[in-house]
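> @MW can you paste both from yesterday?
MW: sure, first one:
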Amino acid sequence: MPVSWVIDLRGHLDRAALGRLRAALGLNEVGRLGDDWDELFGEVTRAIAGVAARVELWRDVDSQGWRLDIELPADPDDSDVQDLLAALRAEVESAGVQIALIARRR
């Protein structure tokens, strides 16, 4: 059964912060900050316990808030998920971006 997590980011990302975040997370570069309707700003696949975890950076069109969506096709061991989330947290913070919330989606 697929499992989904969300990491809500705090604050506004300008071009420099977006570049640092993409580099820290290893995300590809998609989306344009100047286009109000662009929502997806990067994605990468990470291996976790032999399962491919999809990490995507999204901007909400209405609120202009930012989030990382983490999608797993199966429910790996909780310690593996916690290791992935800890790594993502460290990478986000190394880019100078703050995290507002990390939560599992139901």
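MW: second:
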Amino acid sequence: MGEVFEADAKEVAGLAVLANDVADKAGEAARFTQDNAAPGGNFGEGLMQTLFSPLEAAADAASSRFDGHTAMCRGIGTELNRAAWMYRDQEQKNYEALNAQIPACLLDEYGSDVAAPGFAEDYPDPARYVAPEDIKLEPPVTDAEDIRTLIADRAGWLGDVDDAIKAVTGWSALEETVKPIGGNWNELKRIGESHKVAGEAMENCGKNLEAGAKQVSDHWAGKAEEAFQDYAHRQVEAMTWEGPVGGVIKRLLEVAADEIKRITLEVVDNLADLLIKEVTIDDVISLLKFAVKKVPFVGTTIQGVVIVDIIMSVKDRVTVLVDSIRGIVDTVSGFLAAVVSPSGQLNELSEATLGPIAKKVDGTKKQAEFARDLASVADADGPLHKPTEPFSVGIGPDPWADAA
């Protein structure tokens, strides 16, 4: 047997206030995503550059989803505020109280049986509904670390040698060598952290709406309340899904960034080891002043100096190293594409495809968090079954109907 209709107008109004607050915070998360999750900075011309377009698409898609969540929550707030006016006098059970609070209402078209559309005035003295979860949106900062900085820390003289070559020839053998792995890998970490911050904010927005829906259930019963609970449940699931998505993106981009940095370090160390065996570093600059000569070869190079030959010999090693982690970068791109258009494909990407990457996540605790988030993302029911139309308590006698 269904529940007999009852409604406390102040409670419904209180939930309306909370829903509008959730919409405000969700809107802030959408703007944060627009401002911070898109790729920028130095992506180089090689491996990192292949992630630029997928990251751009992922940021656009997340921002669009967040805008959608904002609109749905705003619609809930608007409709519940209207419903509070409908329930102000339960003995009448008509639309007259609501219509009196809509400035544009034309009384000859709308009456006790037909509600006027539009926004109603805020219901006075609503019940207090507290959002239990804090929403924090703090933009992460990109550390300015690129190949030149790394060289300076690892083997500063290597950069000095290359600078001397470039000063004479106008061409950098070192830059040519590391081009496939050039770029600021910390930009990937910044983007990942931005997705995590935004995703957690949206997840908390969903939890706040969920708390409000639970609180109102003690003060509202009937067909309209059942419809609201179903609608809210689907909306909450869609919003809380965003938290794990942001967490997975953060970890994937951290792994990609760390792998790019790792092979960059290997290249720098390899170059330093080879060069230090062949030259006396203190005498290199003087040597170059007398031994350089411009000749056509990939732009300009130096003839008769072993240094350039050594640097160029490492290019083959760079190619091997890039190929060794290209699979990780391709997997990241595939996951981002799947999140842009959520479907059953997310299940396929979970353990089999992303499992090996989980082993590269630094730390047992972080690996456990990654596995948990990945399982939540793979369950795409939230985004697939989210509401697509604004919430409504119904028309005619529906708002006051007993539950079925």
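> thanks! The chain is about 65% helix and 0% strand.
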